Amino acid sequence: MKMTDKNPFPTFPNTASALACAAALVTGFTTITHAADWPEYRGPNHDGSTTEKIALKWPATGPAVVWKTPASDGFSSFAVAGGKAYTIVSRKLDNTPTEVCLALDASTGKEAWAAPLSFTKYDGGGASGAKGNDGGDGPRSTPTVDGNFVYVLSSALQLFCFEAKSGKPAWKKDLLAEHHGKNIRWQNAASPVIDGDLVFVGGGGPDESLLAFNKADGKLAWKSQTETITHSTPVVATIHEVRQVIFFTQSGLVSLATKDGALLWKQPFRFNISTAISPVVGGDIVYCAAGYDVGAAAYRITKTGAAFKTTELWRSAGNKPVANHWSTPVYKAGHLYGMFQFKEYGTGPLKCVELATGKVKWEKPGFGPGNVILVDGNLLALADNGELVAVEATPAGYQETARAKILAGKCWSTPVVSNGRVYARSTKEAVCVDVSLKTAGK
Prior knowledge:
Elements: H1 15-26, E1 49-50, E2 64-70, E3 79-81, E4 84-93, E5 96-105, E6 111-119, E7 144-146, E8 149-153, E9 158-163, E10 169-174, H2 175-178, E11 193-195, E12 198-202, E13 210-214, E14 220-224, E15 235-239, E16 242-249, E17 252-257, E18 263-268, E19 280-282, E20 285-290, E21 295-304, E22 307-316, E23 330-332, E24 335-339, E25 350-354, E26 360-364, E27 371-375, E28 378-382, E29 387-392, E30 400-405, E31 416-418, E32 421-425, E33 429-434
Parallel strand pairs: 1-27
Antiparallel strand pairs: 2-33, 3-4, 4-5, 5-6, 7-8, 8-9, 9-10, 11-12, 12-13, 13-14, 15-16, 16-17, 17-18, 19-20, 20-21, 21-22, 23-24, 24-25, 25-26, 27-28, 28-29, 29-30, 31-32, 32-33
C-alpha cells in the first residue's frame, strides 16, 4: 500500500476477501501468542504484565540501544509480535493531518509498511506537559496483533484489520456510520481488545454501544447496552470462573459475558470531562479511577448462582491520593503499582497502593504521568521525561534497581517488553533497548 493511496478500502469487505481471511485463520493462522510477544495495549494477559525475565541492573551508560528512529506526534504505545513493532503516528498526507499505522522491523526499527487510517485534526487536548516538554498532540490508541493480522481503532472510531506481513487491508468497520455511534471529546483513545475469536470495542449508539466482531471477517458477533464511551480501553478477565469484558463507560463499570455480550454486572462511577485508565482486576476486586476531581474506588465482585453483585470496598474522592488520570496501574499480590497523579507533569509520584483498602504504602516523586508494566514480578516504569526505571514490586518500600534516559520528547505511552528488549516511544522518537539477561552485570 502506498501512502499516496487516497482510499485503500474502496469496496470492502467483500465476500471473497472475508472468506479468504476466515479460511486463513481456520487453516493455521489462529492466535499464536508467544511468551516473548507483547501483542496489544495491556499485554499478553490483558493486565500490563509479562512473565518474561529481563536484567534489572544496567550499565552506568544505560541499556544498549538496539535502534532509535524519529516518530511523529502521538501517545500510541507499541504492540510487538511476529518480528514487527506496531504503533500509530500522525503524518500529513496531501497536507492533511492523518493517523497512520506503522509497522517497524522489530530488530532494526526500519519501516516495513505504513497504512493510513482516518483524516484527523486534533484539538490540542494532549498538548500540555511539563515546561519545555509540552506539545505533540496525536493518536492515543495502540494496535493489536493477533496471528497474521493487525487490528487498529482510529480516533474517528473506525476499526481496521490489516495483514501483518504487508499492511494490505483485510476488512474495516465504521462504528459511527454502521452502528449509529457518536464520538467523544478529544476523540477515541481506546485500543481494540482481542480474546479468543472476538475483537471488542466501544463506540456504537443506543442498544449497540459495546460491540464484538469476529476477528476473521469483521462480522458482528454481538452488540450490547446503551452507554457513552470514554477514553478507557476495556479489559478481559475471568472472575468467578466467568470470562468477561469490562468496559469503563461514562455511567461506570459495565461487565459483559465475552461469549454473547450479556450483562453480568454494572457499577455506577462518576464521570467528569474524561475517564482514561483501564479497569484493573485483582482476584475478585476491580479498581477504577479518573482525574478531574473524580477520584478512585475498588469494588468486590461476588456471585450467587448466576447473579453477580458489586460491593464498594473504599472510595477516595478528588485528585489525591490514589486517583489516576490515564496511567493504568498494575496489580501484584494485593497491591497496585503505578503513577497515581493528575496533571503533575514531570513531578508526579510512582506509588504502591493496597488494593483492598486504598492505603498508600509508599510513593516516589519524579515520574509524572508516565506508565508502568509488570515484568516477571518487577516494575518497569517509563517517566514522562523519557527515563526508564526498574523497581522492585514490593509494598516494603521503593527499591530502584536501574535508571536510564532512553528517549527525548514527551512520554505518555507505555513501555513494552519483547524478546529481552524494551520498545518505547515519545512524541519525537521511538527506541528499542536491550535488557536481556545476557546483559546483566555488564
